Amino acid sequence: MSTGTALEHDGSAKHSWLRQNRVRTALWIAVAEVVLAALTASVSKYTIIALGLIAIPVYFIWGKDQRGTIRDVSWTAAASQALAIVAVLLSHFIGLFVLVLAAIFAAVALFLIFVDRG
User: Fold this and answer.
1) What is the pLDDT of residues 50-107, one digit of tens each?
2) Based on the structure, what is the number of domains in the chain?
3) What is the Cα–Cα distance from 61 to 56, expressed in whole angstroms?
4) Residue in 37, 41, 17 with CA at minimum distance from that of residue 95
5) Which of 46, 59, 70, 104 is the most buried (most CB within 10 A)?
6) Does residue 79 lie in a domain region?
7) What b/e sequence results for 35-66 when a residue is b if at least 16 CB atoms lie within 10 Å of its CB, and e otherwise?
8) What burial letters (b/e) apply to 6-33, b meaning 16+ CB within 10 Å?
9) Has residue 98 been placed in a domain?
10) In three state form, how does the secondary structure of 16-49 look?
11) Count of CB atoms within 10 A of residue 93's CB?
12) 49 domain residue, yes or no
């Protein structure tokens, strides 16, 4: 026969594990999302941003006022989406930066080739 105390103990043990591992879990979710966005067409960068625009406000409006597992799950979802958005934006800007840098290198190389015609 179970008692209320045993149920609270089970809930607190699960809550304790989630609380201890929520940062690691959020990082792995973000990594998985970014890898999926990079490798597949079905998960786009816009999908990740849209999910973040849902998960982050849900946490700040509703999740942070909850207790226990609900708060940790909503925090993990919001944190993973925020990390994924940062990764998507960095890949976009770094990708653009790399293209600009490649264009500058190509222009310098062409200049050096044409100057050295002699």
Assistant:
1) 999 999 999 999 999 999 899 999 999 999 999 999 988 888 888 888 878 888 888 8
2) 1
3) 9
4) 37
5) 59
6) yes
7) eebeeeeebebeebeebbeebbeebeeebeee
8) eeeeeeeeebeebbeebeebbeebbeeb
9) no
10) HHHHHHHHHHHHHHHHHHHHHHHHCCCCCHHHHH
11) 10
12) yes
The amino acid occupying position 79 is A
Chain length of the chain: 118
Structure tokens at 83: 């990390």
The per-residue pLDDT for 18 is 78
Identity of the residue numbered 40:
T
More confident residue, 80 or 37: 80
Tokens of residue 85, six digits: 């958005």
At 59, the amino acid letter reads: Y
Supply the range of the domain harboring residue 24.
Answer: 4-87
Closest alpha carbon to 47 in 75, 85, 13? 85
In a domain, 37, yes or no: yes
| Rounded average pLDDT over 26-30 | 91
